[in-house]
Write a structure and sequence with these properties.
mainly alpha, rod-shaped
């Protein structure tokens, strides 16, 4: 009595026959990898430019707000008071 091949064995034979008919594409991996690397570099560049733009806009807005809130006249930020002259009134 002859034993028939199992379903797993038949499936393996069919898949091997199909795989033998598929042509190998050796450089497709390298071209896909190159495309992925180009997209990754472009994504990082766009992100860096976006961060730079946000930083510049934030600094410009902060300086604009500080400039608008400052009084318009000449203001002394820090001044050293002169010591009173000899015999003059003492600060107290």
């Amino acid at each position: 009595m002859s034993r028939s091949p199992s379903a797993g064995q038949q499936l393996r034979e069919v898949l091997e026959a199909v795989a033998d008919n598929v042509p190998a594409a050796y450089d497709s991996y390298h071209s896909a990898l190159g495309g992925w690397r180009r997209r990754e570099r472009r994504r990082r560049l766009v992100l860096a430019v976006l961060i730079l733009v946000v930083f510049v806009v934030a600094v410009a807005a902060g300086l604009w707000v500080l400039n608008r809130s400052a009084p318009s006249g000449h203001t002394v930020i820090y001044s050293v008071a002169l010591a009173p002259a000899a015999g003059g009134p003492a600060a107290g």
